[in-house]
Amino acid sequence: xxxxxxxxxxxxxxxxxxxxxxxxxxxxxxxxxxxxxxxxxxxxxxxxxxxxxxxxxxxxxxxxxxxxxxxxxxxxxxxxxxxxxxxxxxxxxxxxxxxxxxxxxxxxxxxxxxxxxxxxxxxxxxxxxxxxxxxxxxxxxxxxxxxxxxxxxxxxxxxxxxxxxxxxxxxxxxxxxxxxxxxxxxxxxxxxxxxxxxxxxxxxxxxxxxxxxxxxxxxxxxxxxxxxxxxxxxxxxxxxxxxxxxxxxxxxxxxxxxxxxxxxxxxxxxxxxxxxxxxxxxxxxxxxxxxxxxxxxxxxxxxxxxxxxxxxx
Amino acid sequence: xxxxxxxxxxxxxxxxxxxxxxxxxxxxxxxxxxxxxxxxxxxxxxxxxxxxxxxxxxxxxxxxxxxxxxxxxxxxxxxxxxxxxxxxxxxxxxxxxxxxxxxxxxxxxxxxxxxxxxxxxxxxxxxxxxxxxxxxxxxxxxxxxxxxxxxxxxxxxxxxxxxxxxxxxxxxxxxxxxxxxxxxxxxxxxxxxxxxxxxxxxxxxxxxxxxxxxxxxxxxxxxxxxxxxxxxxxxxxxxxxxxxxxxxxxxxxxxxxxxxxxxxxxxxxxxxxxxxxxxxxxxxxxxxxxxxxxxxxxxxxxxxxxxxxxxxxxxxxxxxxxxxxxxxxxxxxxxxxxxxxxxxxxxxxxxxxxxxxxxxxxxxxxxxxxxxxxxxxxxxxxxxxxxxxxxxxxxxxxxxxxxxxxxxxxxxxxxxxxxxxxxxxxxxxxxxxxxxxxxxxxxxxxxxxxxxxxxxxxxxxxxxxxxxxxxxxxxxxxxxxxxxxxxxxxxxxxxxxxxxxxxxxxxxxxxxxxxxxxxxxxxxxxxxxxxxxxxxxxxxxxxxxxxxxxxxxxxxxxxxxxxxxxxxxx
Lengths: 313, 570
Known about the structure:
heterodimer; B: MetI-like fold; 11 strands
């Protein structure tokens, strides 16, 4: 088990390094000269040159990389190119917003996906199963912001149950916080719920037809006990989907945050992208990948606990 | 049942949902291609008098917040939606399929490296990278959609890899290798053909996803040099409260197009899956009902098992057709036949463990002297693990891989027989010792993948016998084992039968096994019994030519061959 944990950890760190370094060069390559974006197109060449020198862009790219990297490993992502605010601080303020929404959505996907998936897997071809199949086809591809718009129109504007936009911190009001993240979380979670449910349903069905289930029945075990066996065997696939779902939700959150006007890291990413504020983009990339690595690692631990074969590999 | 010779295309066209989706997509394609002809106005033409205008004769869908004709922009937007989806899918296919085929076929290092890259790509939120690529201003739409395509590549990669792995073991690939065809040509011809269908289905998914991604990007203001649905939705979103119609049109267009792509994909998948499933041969199905076969040998009160006129059917025919047999207490009955003869179906219907699609009927099934036919399924289930024990054929797939052997042996003892934990463990340990496992404690703590096949079969026998059933049903208990282990397992079964006074019903295709252990034998063919009798008599003078052929076909190295020869000579 220990080798398994160490191996997963190393793999996560390697991924973090590769993606971060890749992003650094990708960003600088894609953007080239960021000064028109930062100063506007009307800026004079001399002004641009001054800004470039101030930002240290006149140095060789590798020197810039090392400068950034050596600070980043200590958690210092520098300052924004636009307002010269410390980036770690800005991200720190916004992370709770995004995590509120994304983790709620992930939780919703895991719980509802489990219930729906198992219920339809036990009766393949039943009404619930057919509904799930239809819903999975429709919701799989419909973009999160599209769903968000529908939800806002209906629940916020027509029924006035939830606020249409904005975020309330749980420090101010827990109920207000819940109300403010309900619609965004649902918008994000819908497609994830059906994805997890579909995966669990297929996994459940597949496992339920395996030889050892018949043998367990022949031993006289109750349906409830056999369901536990089947679920445990079907869970690795569902956990993998959950990990992928979390990655998808982090990306999807960017657009959903914009629609609901939430001050999370998604809105920050978007505004930084529009003006070419590379340090913020890189800081956000690092933070996002750190989340992914942590979630993957936790899921790997669960996976190793659930499936003994994984541990021994 | 559909006719087997109908192709997948014809079958696809018969599905209303799939056909509808195809028509919608073709319509979108036509509208996109002929947008310049169909559009009443230039999509960029600004007429301030129609700002936020409601639908009218001149502007059927009204005007947007910049005073442009919505219908024209919608028609032009279809083009960029489709173009973006094609660009993304092409990128995904070009990156994912060749690497997946190579990884699946070559395995080893190629596989590890490619899979690592693919897993890594899947761990990166594509949106974040897209925003980096799009940062600044000068990036064009195609570059963005190609980047989206990079993130669809892992989906293609996994499918291609799995197919290539499956096809790699097929005989025609071996034949190609033997014929001296080089690896590149095998990869290029045989394997690419094998992945074609799943890749087309995956493309429907990827196209839907990339359309969603594209609209999302345009919605937040990226890649919007041309008129596009995402950008129109953003415009509508900003005036949603006052002019909801502006938001409605592009939302509808996007929703319908993506749903059509998704339904096209799922219908294609259904058709292809049904096609491959129907292509599998089904052996031993008969449609014409026949006379009951087999006889009862023992008096009713002496029988541990007594089955009269048993029939097992599936939607496309009967697989067991009027079988009658019995086994006395303490007797060892062999049920012999080749695969598809209905012998396993017979014992599974006795166990009440047939698949849900199966239907059974019988005049009578008595187990331990008790009629079980009219029993509720719960009462029938209660016989399992108490009255009847079951030893399966394939030891490695009949143990739950997620639990230790100890847990799997003690769980029924505790849950079904109500033993306390310590006692159940003691009993499991004793049973493992009894079936000849030298270090029971290690095996109790082990997981199924950590023990050998022969040991697993001993564990399964221990599990079945631990409940001290009156009737033990063993389905090909030695088939999956090494020859040396086969004889030991048969010996063990013989000993346990004597020790616990069980009735043993052994299903096998091997007359060697019958000669080794059985008292009586029932020979089955095509769902009916062709012969039954004492083992010695049957060997000496088989009544049916089929039995004679089966005896002759028993291999020399099976454990019962010596007994078989002795029986034939005597």
